[in-house]
Amino acid sequence: MATPVTGIDPARDGAPPQVPGYTVLARMRESAAAVEYVARAADGATVTLLVPRERLTASGALRRRLRAEADLAVRAAGPWTAPVLRAGADCLVTPYRPALPLDTTVTRHGPLPEHALRILGAALAEALTRLHTLVPVHQGLAPHTVRLAADGPQLTGFGPLAAATSVGTAGGEPRLTLGYLTPEQVARHAPGPASDVFVLGLLLVYAASGSGPFPAATPDVLATADAELGGVPEGLRPLLARCLAKDPADRPTPAQIAAELAPDGVPALLAAGWLPGPVMAELSEQAAYVMGLEAPDEAETGRTPTVVATRTVPDDAAPSPRGPGRRALLIGGAGLALGAAGGWGAARAWGPSRGSTAPTSDAAPRAVDRTPPAALWHYKAQDSAEPALVWHDEIVVIPMGSHTVGLDLRTGKERWSKPFGCASTPVPVRGDTLAAFVDRTLTTFSARTGTRRGTDPRYDDHLTSRFHGRDGHQVWFSISKGGNYQLVRYDLAKSDEVWRTALPKGLAPTDLTATGDAVHVRLAPDGEWELIKDKDEAVFLSFDRATGKRRPSRSYGGLKGKRLSLLTPQGVLYTVDDWFSAYDLDSGERLWRTLPPPRALVRGPGDALYAADITRGTYRFDSRDGTTRWDADAADQQILSNDEVKVSMAVGPGNRSVLRLDTLNVTAYDPKDGTAQWVFEGVGDPYPAESAGIWRMARGTKAAVFSREFAQHYFALPIG
């Protein structure tokens, strides 16, 4: 039976609210202060509407408080908070993102593991650090204001109203009953920044154990009793005990909490995945359901459906009785069962034959065993383009040589087209701002509209084109003049350099990663692999992450210039010569070596390390010791014997598949056992594989966008 995300009885739903510019599609969840809906904006974007309850807007005092919390939501924009599209006392509009409230997650799926707890705590602590520069105390933390999404936690509440478990009036004044009080509030002292730390401790204990640290949360208990931390992972108990100290002066600051929970930063922890499988599955199903929602018919405008998070549909499910006007995305245990839009289906059913006929745009896609999911849409660019960027599961940005376009991820329709060409794939900054190099000028623009927002012309007389790495709103890129390269760390939010450091003459970065307090870089002559003779040793340098000061260089087994290597945020370097080896980046110590040497590598969640060779073999190694967990042959039995052939590896949305991308096709494998899931070759592509180049992927949480080098065709596949 389908289970509503919020647990609200659909029978209680009344007429949807009327918010100009938005069409309400479904009711998501409710709190004491507001009801949240999923809606469609006039431009087709999917958003969430947080609409205050009528009894709050009827009170002048509560309306002022609503306005204050909405204003704080706008000013608090940044990592781990929801970007605000519209704010006022009547509603708060944010982009829709598949997510579950913390309390819903714990109730349905149980406590979070330690790795997830560290990500949750560090992200919320970073958000509090930013909030405390805007207000003395936040008071918006509660299990229902913290949301868990595939790409990290998100704080959605910005004050006592959002966190309240009940709201009433007494003598015309608002009366709030908070579920998460602090000892200083019990003692009738004004809360301060340390009060938010205490509540963060309460939240993390709840997330770790399913219950609070004070079973009998009476005022006396909060003021005097020691916290019960038996259900908390041992490694987190000392920190949470300090967060729950009775004296606010004894509690750590949010910045100290973030540093202790995630020394290398939250993105480094997220790189290994973070949410348990059942939670990811529910997020995927929620996303697919919301993607298929349409505006209600006139006859149904008196009722608003409830967003469903679990929509497991049997293979023989009957078609929707609503007729062809509705488009349903039906999710089964193995993935999407029925694709949408335009008939762009799989290029080839499972099998060894490469000469099978691709379906035309009139062919009806069908779901058969081991065929790829039907493409959501196909887009033909005006010329060859760089890899796409999927922004917030809403916009697909395609940078071409002469111009850049933004497509709707759901439909593939152009949302905007601008006459500027990005030298490489843009990177997100914050909110809907993206950054790219346009004619060697560092440029920011809107993901939703393509409108330029700013430029930094100081690099116009240098050669530069792409970003080597990103850390929140800061990025690394290299610039050159007269053959001399410099590495730049740049703060996109402040539009200014953090530091700049010179590189050895003639050497440019080809790979970069940050670990702890260091930035590790692999260098090559002019950045071109073809210019490196195999007899030359690869060059690896390390710099201080905060200052750019060069650290002592290290050697990693005399790796030759043209050989494969992979720098990872986990602090491990993987190299390929006659052996496949792993080294500790800081010490230079070799951790292990094994066979066979692969041609492409990617780190997956946990201890997974995926690899591919040029004979179409695909492998999963244990990143801890190099043990082979599984190996799989090519699904179509074709061999790529050319030593210069390109191949890459990627992890699919939701970590549900591991993808091998080469010049022939995209092959998806089950991450657990290596079972081949499907093969995709594209549809209607006039370029033969040999001339079109390697397949590439841009990943969202609901879908992935595939394209090939030197070709013009882009396909969105619902594989999340």
Report on this model:
16% of the residues lie in helices and 31% in strands. With 720 residues, the chain is an alpha+beta fold. Among the domains are: 3-278, Transferase(Phosphotransferase) domain 1 (Transferase(Phosphotransferase), domain 1); 598-720, Beta Barrel (Lipocalin), CATH 2.40.128. The strands form 13 sheets. A five-stranded antiparallel beta sheet has the order 2-3-4-6-5. A four-stranded antiparallel beta sheet has the order 15-45-44-43, with no helix packed on it. Strands 16-17-18-19 form a four-stranded antiparallel beta sheet, with no helix packed on it. Strand 39 and strand 40 (658-662) form a beta hairpin. The model is unreliable at 1-13, 170-178, 297-303, 308-369, 527-532 and 684-690 (pLDDT under 50).
Kindly provide the name of the CATH class of the domain at 3-278: Mainly Alpha
Terminal residue distance:
22 Å
Number of strands: 45
Question: Can you tell me the CATH topology of the domain at 3-278?
Answer: Transferase(Phosphotransferase), domain 1
Roughly what percent helix?
A: 10-25%
Number of helices: 13
Describe the oligomeric state of these chains in a short phrase.
single chain
CATH H-level superfamily title of the domain at 3-278:
Transferase(Phosphotransferase) domain 1
Strand content range: 25-35%
Shape: globular
Helix/strand-derived category reads alpha+beta
Largest sheet, strands/sense/barrel: 5 strands, antiparallel
